[in-house]
Each structure stands twice: as C-alpha cells, then as structure tokens.
Design a protein that fits this description.
Blueprint: H1 13-33, E1 46-51, H2 62-80, E2 84-86, H3 97-106, H4 110-119, H5 124-129, H6 133-150, H7 166-181, E3 185-195, E4 200-201, E5 215-224, E6 230-235, E7 246-249, E8 254-260, E9 263-268, H8 269-275, E10 282-289, E11 297-299, E12 306-311, E13 324-326, H9 332-342, H10 345-351, E14 364-365, H11 373-381, H12 389-406, E15 408-409, H13 424-437, H14 443-456, E16 460-466, E17 480-491, H15 495-506, E18 509-511, H16 516-525, E19 528-530, E20 532-533, E21 540-541, E22 544-549, H17 559-562, H18 565-570, H19 580-588, H20 593-600, H21 604-617, E23 622-626, H22 633-644, E24 653-657, E25 660-662, E26 665-666, H23 677-684, H24 686-695, E27 703-705, H25 707-725, H26 728-734, H27 745-766, H28 770-794, H29 801-818, H30 823-832, H31 854-877, E28 881-888, H32 895-905, H33 910-919, H34 924-940, H35 943-949, H36 956-962, H37 964-971, E29 975-979, E30 1001-1006
Parallel strand pairs: 1-2, 1-23, 7-12, 18-24, 23-24, 25-27, 28-29
Antiparallel strand pairs: 3-4, 3-17, 5-6, 5-16, 7-13, 8-9, 8-10, 11-12, 14-15, 17-19, 20-22, 21-22, 25-26, 28-30
Helix pairs in contact: 1-23, 1-30, 3-6, 11-12, 15-16, 15-22, 19-21, 23-24, 24-25, 26-29, 27-28, 27-29, 27-31, 28-29, 29-30, 32-33, 32-34, 33-34
C-alpha cells in the first residue's frame, strides 16, 4: 500500500480534517435533497460547461480530480455571477480499455490484481466478477460517480448517460450518417496503429499512457548487391541520397534475407515482421548477424556509386529496416561514425576501402551556412563519439530543421546521376529530368520529387513506422503499423473540412492563449483517422454493422446529447422512436414536429420541449480537459462541431489543464501511485483536496501533488475558521446593517482594499487563473483583515459600532468568495453566521462603488512606504530610535508628481520631463535634482497606485496623525509630523532634506547605545 504522507508538524490537523469530512457529508446530503444543481431553462443568462467524461476502467484518480475540480470551481463562480449553469456528466464505456482490463483479470495479471486488491481495496469476490467487462465498467462507473459527489462537483445528475446506452447510440448513428452524407467519412486502404496480438486498430485511448501512435512514412531506397539483392535503406530524407557514401548496419543485430513480393531483400528481423502487416508477402529465407554484411558493396540507386556496407552501433534494428544510408555532409550521426571508422586504417585496408571514398559529399546548400552543415555543427559542438546520443540528437534536430526550412539542392547533383550507365543518351535524359525536377529546388520540393522519381523507376518503396514508439496497447502488446484495407476513416485531411475547423477555432476563446498554436498545428497535420474497430463496446456503424465506432470518434459532439436526454427518458421515448428525422428536428431545427410526431408516436410537446432545451443551452460555452487531449479529442471536437452544426452553435471556449504528477513522479498504475480520489478525500477532506488541487499550481502548469501542501492549506482553513468564529455573533447581528456614512481612514481603506481584491479574483477566475484568484481569496484577504484588526486594536477602537458593521460586511463577503473553492466549508460558515439560503447559490460578493475610496488606498500605500523607509534606516543604523520626525509636502504640492505620471503613462522619457520642470524653475539645479527624484518615485509606484496618484492630492500630515499610534507601534518610537517649511519644524542633524509627494523627509533621533 502506497502511504499517504502525514504532517506531524501540524498538531491536531486530523481532528480538523475529521470535522471537515463531517460537514461535507452533512451538506452533500442537504444539497441533494434540495436538488441544487439541477439546471433547467430560465430567464437567466445561461452558461453551459462540460469536462471530458471518464473511462470507468479504474478508480477516479488525481488526474480526473484536477480536471473536474477546476471545472467545478469555474462553474460555481459563473453560477455566483448570475448565470444559469449546466454542468452535466456521463461515462465513456466505448472502446478497448475496459476489454483490456477485463482480459488482464482473466489472465491473472499480477500487477493488475495487486492494484485492485491493495490500492483499490476491491474484495476478491468482486474482482472475480470483473472478468465480465460490463460488470467491471459498471462497478467503476458507480465508484467514480460516488467520488465526484464526495468532492462536491455541482453536477446535474439527471442528465447522466453511458456511451453504450441505446438512445445515445441512436444519436451517434445520426451523427455518423451526417458526416457520411457530407463526404467526411470514407472507406480506404490506410495505415493505422495496430495491436498485432489482439488484432485491432489502436489510438490514444487504447494505449498505455494514452499515447497516440504517430505514424510516419519512410522512403525505402533500394541499395542493391551484385546479384540484385535489395538492402532497403529507410530514410525520411530521400533527397540526400545524392551524397550517400556508404550504408550502415548494426553488426550485433539479427538480419534476415527474405523474399518480399518476389524479390530478395535483406533487412532487420524486426523490420521483416512489421512489413508483414503492410500488404507485403514475406517469406524469410535465412537469419544472420549484421556483421556478415560488413564490407559488401552495394549500388546507390540514384548515383550508381558502389558504396560499402559499414558497421554502426547507433543503428536501431527496430526503427525502419535496420539499414541506414550514410550522408556525412548532412547527417551528424553519419559524420561522427565515419570519423570513428577513418581511425581504423587496418580495418579499411582489409575491406579495400579508401578513406577518400568516405569523405562528405554535399547535396544541400544553406545560404550563409555553406553546404556541409552536419560537419560544421558537429565540429562546433565538439561531438566525437557516436554513442553521445543526446548531443547527436540535438545536432541532428538542428541540421534537419535548418536544411528543411532554408536549404536548396545543389545544381551539380544532376551530374552524379546513374554514373555507372554507359548509355549516354539514356543518362542525358535522366540528367535533364533531375535538373528540371530536383536540382536547385528547395528541400521540401526536392524531397517529394526524389521519392517519386525513384519509386516510379522501381528503385524505392515505402514503409510506415511508429515515430514516437515504442507504444504499447492496453493489453501490453507493442503497437505496429498495419495497412488496413476497406477501413472506415474520418477524413480530417479534407481541405473543405479543415477550412471549417480553422474558422471554428478562430471564433473560439482558448485558455491559456498559448495553447491556440497547438490546435492550429494539429488541425493542419490531421489526415485520415480510423473511426471504427472490430472489437470493443460501442455503437455499430449505421451502414456497416460489422464495425464498432471507436472511442475517440463517438465522443466529439456528445455535449449536445446532455441537453435533451433527460426529457426523452422522462417521457418514456425509447431508442426505436429516435429516427434521423427526430434528431434533425431537435438538434438542427429541420422538419415539422407534428409530421415527425405522426411518424414516430413521440408527442409534439416532447419534441418541441427538447428543441427548446437544446436551443437554450447550445452552443457549449466552455469545454474543459487536459492538454494530452489537444492533439486528438479536443481537435476532433472542433472538427465535428464545425461539420454538424451551424456557426451559431459552434463551441465558444476551450480550457486546457496541465498534467498531474504525484510527489514528482508521473502517475502510473505500474508505479502504484494512482491513489483513488475517495481515499485522498477521506485523508484530506473533500475541501482540503479541492483547495490543494486549486492552489498548488496554475492551470497551464503541471500539478505536482503533495500532501504537505494540502495540510498547509487545511491549516489555513482552520486559521480562517477560528478568525470568523471569534466574530460570529457580531457578524450575525451586524451583517445586514448599513455601512455608516462617516468612517475612519482604516475603515475606508479595508472596504476599498477588499473590493480591489475581489475584483482581481473575479478577473482571474474569468481567465481560469484559478490559483491566482485562490491565493487572493484565502491568503491575501486574510492578511488585509488582520492588518485592519491590528489597526483597530492599536487605536483602541476594536469592535466599536462602526468597526462591527464593517467587519460583519467583510466576513460575509469573504465567505461567499470562498464558496467556489471550498463549498462545504463555506456552507458551514455561512450557516454559522446566519446567512440566508445556501451560500453555493449566493451571488458573488460585490462592494458598491460608493464605498470605494482611491484616496484611502493611496493613503495606506503611503503609510506602508513610510514605515518601510523608517525601518530600513533603523536597520542600517543598528540603534534604537528615540523619535521619528517627518516633514511632508502640503496638500497642494502634487503638481510635479501628476506631471511625472503623465509622462510615464505617455511613454515619454525622463529627460523631457526634467527639461520641462527645469524650464519653469528659478533654481534650475535644485529643480533638476527634485524632478529626477519625483520621476523615479512615480516609476516605482505599482500601476494601480500610480493611476490613483495621478489625480489625488493627499493631506499627508493628516493621514500620519490619524494612524500615528499604529505607525509608532510598527517602528518602535514616537512620531512627529510637520509640513515642509512649517514654522518651528524640528530637524535632527544639520542637513535639510527635500520632501516629495508620497516621499516625506525622514529624520530619526537615536539613543546613543
């Protein structure tokens, strides 16, 4: 059992967690009894929000909890701002994850059984039943739903469904028929990721770690032996073949000679296996080690040069064919490996190879970088070992990128073609073709042209590979690429569809904004994607029921189904009545409800109510998910909405969250650190878990979850709780009383400061900056309140009539601001202070502008700066102060500051400001010095304070006098204040200092010791 980390430094924290768990159970029950989160159309503005529904093939874990908690905080915030919020949830049964988990149980997989028994704590008799996939998925469905309720998600559970429910299947068939009619679904022969053992296509949801197999196409260049045997060199850069001086094999790897489509090939054993899935007929003739090939001569298919086979340990037999061509001028690995070979003179002599044969031959020129970029980069990075993979990978990435973007083919490559052909007429024809099609062309153009030329000549083929391999299926099998015949595909490569997707993305708000480019790039590189499987739970293709629609294809527009499914179910509308005409009317507004009612037997009012409900909620206002779904589900979501719905029903926003780690490690079942949420919620309390998720990182960062952080935050909740309880009776009695018209500076300051904090938190929540807003609510506001109470106590006016009213208003406001983050905790506090109704239904706290005082905020900023300056002087002198004397400017002397702020906000330089001030002064030297000081002072002010100071003139003497006892407490000495130039103003020392607006002259008299 993975231990949950304890926190011994927090005394009695667990008793407080017990209390938090108790109130969570209490308020959850009450909320459910009152159906608080059931959202129906109303006169309020709507806000429709969803998060990706989970696969129930395991317990709900921290990854789920982060997505759903942050989504819930956003939903609760929107609800508090007066929106009618719908937040529904369903469960994704489709696909292979559930089957794979059930199969592991049948096979007695030790890791799975350990996970279920020791971490999930599932009884043996229940695990035995999980051999049935449907039992397994329903068991975890119930567990996940319960976990969602435990942590307080504000979900409308009336709308719950699973992706294998018959009515949902009807909806999915309608969707696929629409895509098929539009020509966006095609049947084709195409490469797909494939589990070779189970025999099924796989995508990200079918793999361990949810990794999408990225398929790349290698060109296989036919280097040939004298007897015609082909050594197919796999490359992504066929245009560099004009500079290939040898080919590489791994001497220790196993290679095979095989008859492939009637011709003899030599390639790695792994490659022969994989090519068997790519429409190749393969018969293995013999096996041998790669060392057997070393020293043989092969013909370069482009140039006709007879180049040697050489050994290289960097060659991976499981990538491509295990045969690699060597182009040292443009491939760092090749250049470094050949440098090693060149040192072995006896070896080369034995093989009959002259060093001159292996010199880099340029193919590509980069303006300003020459024509042997790999050589230059390797030498500049001082790489001298082919085993230095990290450096070589970096160098390779740099070279390939620069040459692809800036490189052009050399003109003279044409004259290297077919150098071993004696037929001058034939050769001149080929040279002319290369001059026209490849020589002098940009690298991307030349790449395609070279591959086509050699393929058309029968000198090249192609092979598909997993670029980000190894990738493993949910069954634990290594994924290969299979070319499927008659496979059904969503044709995301279709330009007509891409154009719609681009337009939809452009109309959407993306949070965080930096993710937008990832969506744009994904839209561009998407091509055909297999959309059906022969195995797994799900919906049958409507026109070909041998196929089941796969999991990432039936989860693209299901948000529309949430809006109306409960109406159909409540009225007993079975799936057999849900014809395409019904969905056309409900979701697209097509057809007559009366005619459809006659055909289907569905009452007209049910059809019209469903249409109205859909019209009310759609479009989806906000879609929330983790960033690993950007390159699949979330982009499919954009494509499919754009294809199915009119523009006014396209989604409005996507919010993307970072990954989750547990104590610095990626969460993984194999690492045994996927701690169930129900366990964490019990250990930390639901609100403790929620606030730890919310405040540990910002949404665009990866969350590294640690219990210590949670305990710290729970301790903060306890401190806030204690503070509020100590004022409970006052809050109850005074929260409804009006704020007095005449109040002190500190009263005006705290009201204005809380308004400023709440406005900032609201602004951050609108941007889904959940951590920033949370820190403001749970930490910064507390500091403000404590400061206010400290001032009250120091001035001996703590709990006078005015302060009671203000404290009551502030605490009332504060509790409502906490509710989106810690709803159970806030509800209990709300009840404690006599709040009306439920706090989770209360409005976001707003302090009216009439109580907001910019002058009070500037005044307190002034006092804080004064105290800091005094403390700094005391710190430097290291003596005890006897008296503080302060000289301040008179209220009418802010003109210089206002002018400086005007220059700063107008982006005018300081020298122009100084010039203007000096031009109007009699003592120009003194005026210049003061002008510089004022400008620098204005520059140091926070933007908000600078804005306030641009039109406010403080009575600095009056402010200091109003808070003098508090200042004296903070600096440890009495304070006396004078206006600058005031008669009999006291000065310590001989030097008289200038007083500036917001920057008084400070004189301190110290004790001798």
């Amino acid at each position: 059992m993975l231990p949950i980390v304890e926190a011994p430094q927090y005394k009695d924290i667990h008793s407080y967690i017990t209390w938090l768990n108790k109130i969570a159970s209490k308020w959850r029950r009450i909320w459910e009894e009152n159906c608080l989160y059931q959202a129906s159309p109303s006169s309020k503005p709507k806000f429709y929000i969803t998060a990706a529904f989970p696969y129930p093939n395991g317990m709900m874990h921290l990854g789920h909890a982060r997505t759903y908690t942050l989504t819930d905080i956003y939903a609760r915030y929107k609800r508090s701002r007066g929106f009618n919020v719908l937040f529904p949830m369903g469960f994704h049964y489709t696909g292979t994850p559930v089957l794979a988990m059930a199969d592991k149980i049948k096979e007695g997989d030790k890791a799975t059984l350990k996970l279920f028994k020791e971490l999930y704590r599932i009884p043996d008799e229940v695990i035995e039943k999980m051999k049935d996939p449907l039992f397994l998925v329903r068991y975890f469905h119930e567990k996940i739903r319960e976990s969602m309720k435990i942590i307080g998600l504000s979900i409308d559970w009336r709308r719950e469904f699973t992706s294998i429910d018959p009515d949902f299947s009807s909806f999915i068939r309608w969707q696929f028929n629409k895509l098929y009619e539009k020509g966006f679904i095609t049947q084709d022969t195409h490469p797909v990721g494939w589990d070779p053992v189970v025999g099924t296509p796989v995508s990200s949801h079918d793999t361990k770690g949810d990794v999408e197999p990225e398929i790349v196409e290698f060109t296989l260049l036919f280097f040939t032996l004298d007897d015609g045997t082909i050594l197919p060199a796999a490359t992504l850069r066929p245009e560099t073949v004009f500079g290939a001086v040898n080919i590489w094999v791994n001497p220790g790897a196993v290679y095979v000679k095989a008859c492939i489509d009637g011709k003899n090939w030599i390639l790695s054993k792994e490659a022969a296996y994989k090519l068997g899935f790519q429409l190749k007929k393969i018969e293995v003739i013999e096996e041998f080690k790669g060392e057997k090939l070393v020293g043989l001569r092969t013909r370069n298919p482009a140039t006709g040069w007879r180049v040697p086979v050489l050994p290289a340990v960097f060659v991976d037999p499981d990538t491509g064919t295990g045969i690699v061509m060597s182009v040292p001028a443009h491939a760092p690995y090749d250049y470094v490996a050949l440098k090693d070979i060149m040192k072995q003179k006896d070896f080369l002599l034995k093989l009959g190879i002259k060093p001159s044969e292996l010199q880099p031959i340029p193919v590509i020129e980069v303006p300003g970088r020459g024509n042997k970029l790999a050589v230059d980069v390797v030498e500049s990075m001082k790489i001298d070992k082919q085993t230095d993979r990290e450096a070589l990978d970096k160098a390779t990435k740099e070279v390939y990128s620069i040459e692809f973007k800036q490189g052009r083919m050399l003109d003279d490559i044409a004259y290297r073609v077919l150098s071993d052909i004696n037929d001058d007429r034939l050769r001149s024809y080929v040279v002319a073709a290369i001059k026209s099609l490849i020589a002098g062309k940009p690298v991307p153009e030349a790449r395609d042209a070279t591959a086509k030329w050699l393929s058309d000549a029968g000198l090249a083929d192609k092979m598909y590979e997993i670029a980000n391999g190894p990738v493993y299926s949910r069954w634990g099998n290594k994924v290969v690429v299979k070319i499927l015949e008659n496979q059904w595909f969503l044709d995301y490569g279709k330009e007509e569809w891409k154009k719609l997707a681009r337009e939809a993305l452009a109309s959407m708000r993306i949070i965080p904004p930096g993710i937008r480019k990832d969506f744009s790039e994904t839209i561009e590189w998407f091509q055909k994607r297999a959309c059906a499987r022969t195995r797994g739970l799900g919906t049958k293709l409507p026109w070909d029921e041998e196929w089941v629609i796969e999991s990432l294809s039936d989860s693209t527009i299901y948000m529309a189904f949430y809006t109306i499914n409960y109406i159909l179910r409540n009225n007993g509308i079975g799936p057999e009545k849900l014809t395409p005409d019904v969905w056309d009317y409900i979701l697209l507004g097509k057809g007559s409800p009366r005619e459809i009612s006659k055909k289907t037997g569905i009452p007209v009012n049910v059809l019209m109510d469903s249409r109205k409900e859909f019209e009310y909620w759609y479009p989806l206002d906000s879609r929330h998910s983790a960033k690993d779904l950007v390159k699949n589900h979330l982009t499919f979501f954009i494509f499919n909405h754009a294809a199915i719905f009119p523009k006014d029903k396209w989604p409005r926003q996507i919010v993307v969250y970072g990954y989750v780690m547990y104590r610095g490690q990626k969460m993984s079942k194999s690492l045994f650190n996927v701690i169930p949420v129900e366990m964490l919620a019990k250990q930390l309390s639901p609100d403790g878990l929620r606030i730890a998720i919310a405040l540990s990182s910002e949404i665009d960062q990866d969350l590294d979850f640690r219990e210590e952080t949670a305990y710290t935050l729970i301790e903060q909740l306890r401190r806030i709780h204690t503070l509020i309880l100590s004022h409970k009776e006052i809050i109850k009695e005074y929260r409804k009383k009006p704020i007095p018209t005449r109040i002190s500076l500190e009263d005006s300051w705290i009201i204005s400061k809380i308004k400023e904090r709440l406005d900032h938190a609201a602004e951050m929540l609108e941007e889904s900056r959940i951590r920033d807003a949370g820190n403001t609510i749970f930490y910064i506001i507390e500091e403000d309140i404590k400061k206010y109470i400290d001032i009250l106590k120091t001035k001996k006016r703590y709990l006078d009539e005015e302060s009671k009213v203000i404290l009551a208003h502030i605490f009332d406001t504060w509790i409502r601001a906490m509710a989106p983050y810690t709803p159970f905790y806030a509800e209990e506090l709300w009840s404690t202070i006599g709040g009306e109704g439920f706090v989770v239904e209360a409005s976001w706290p707003i302090i009216e502008d009439e109580f907001y005082s910019e002058e009070a905020l500037l005044a307190m900023e002034y006092i804080d700066r004064l105290v800091n300056d005094i403390r700094e002087i005391i710190r430097v002198r290291k003596k005890k102060p006897r008296e503080i004397i302060v000289h301040v400017v008179k209220p009418g002397e802010y003109r210089l500051l206002w002018k400086a702020i005007e220059y700063i906000e107008g982006n005018k330089p300081m020298k122009e400001y100084i010039r203007e001030v000096v031009s109007e002064a009699l003592n120009k030297k003194k005026a210049g010095i003061i002008a510089r000081q004022v400008y620098e002072l204005a520059s140091s002010l926070p933007p908000k304070i600078r804005h306030i100071a641009s039109n406010v003139s403080l009575d600095e003497k009056g402010i200091i006098k109003e808070l003098d006892v508090w200042i004296e407490k903070l600096v440890g000495a009495p304070i006396t204040v004078y206006y600058q130039g005031e008669k009999d103003a006291k000065i310590v020392g001989r030097e008289k200092k200038p007083s500036l607006p917001l920057k008084p002259a400070i004189y301190i008299e110290f004790y001798n010791k």
